[in-house]
Amino acid sequence: MKEWIIAALAGAATGVLSGFGVGGGSLLLIYMTSFAGVPQTLAQGVNLLYFLPAAATALPAHLKNGYVEKKALLPAIAAGLVCSALAAWAATALDVEVLRKCFGGFLILIGLRELFQKG
Amino acid sequence: MDKKQGKTLWYALAGAAAGVVNGFFGGGGGQVLVPMLAGKCALEQRKSFATSVAVIAPLCALSAAIYWWRGQLDWALALPYLAGGLAGGFVGGRVFKNLSMTWLRRGFALLILYGGVKALL
């Protein structure tokens, strides 16, 4: 039960960021793989599912505030669906340790970018 | 190619890049999508973030289906995170309008770097 509560709290904390549009899923992946002992590939699957309720509850406010650029949706989603399907296929075929190293490299890159970005 | 077509192409490229990252790492699509929407697509910053939520959600749904199909989806494990995400997203959507993003950034960067080092070591 305690683990369940901690997981829900972690999801809620990162869910705020996911509702903003960036960073929540990355942090939740770090939490699951570094602290909760979830293997990389399984954590990624959880993270994909977790984004759905977070987006569903955040989007009505974004739409109401007029922050969603509707012209972007069709081209970005169409191209994104094709690429995400191929990438998901590749990730689930890959050795979990290799995937974890790739994830580490990705995090270092975006962390450095965030740290040194101006403005 | 006129300006409108050019912009549509950049939206598609941004979505494609986000799809690659999001499907491969099971997340992180916004890390790629938001800068591209704000940069090449010249969207206002807040719009870039909110639009990213709308674009990433269907990509997550499709990727999750593929993870499931490939036997890499643990529903019982996911359940508490789903409950948390539901609540967090609700709060995120509501406070977003009045949010100052600069203070958030440095702390976020350090957490991400920490995660990167842990994953590599």
Helical segment tally of chain B? 5
Instruction: Report the uncertain regions of chain A.
Output: none
Record field, number of beta strands of chain A: 0
Query: What is the mean predicted local confidence, pLDDT of chain B?
Result: 91
- What portion of residues of chain B belong to β-strands? under 5%
Q: Unreliable stretches of chain B, pLDDT < 50, 5 or more residues?
A: none
- Biggest sheet of chain B, in brief? none
| Chain oligomer state | heterodimer
When the domains of chain A are counted, the total is 1
What's the SSE pattern of chain B? HHHHH
Helix content of chain B: over 70%
Q: Biggest sheet of chain A, open or closed, and with what strands and sense?
A: none
Distance between the termini of chain A: 43 Å
Q: Mind telling me the C-alpha Rg of chain B?
A: 16 Å
Total strand segments of chain B: 0
**Which shape of chain A, going by the Cα principal axes?**
globular
Helix/strand order of chain A, N-terminal first: HHHHH
Mean pLDDT of chain A: 93
Number of helices of chain A: 5
